[in-house]
Amino acid sequence: MKMKFKQIKEMSKEDREKKLKELKLELVKAKSPSAKTANAKAKQIKKIIARIIMLNNSAEVLKKE
Question: Domain range spanning residue 41?
Answer without folding.
Answer: 5-64
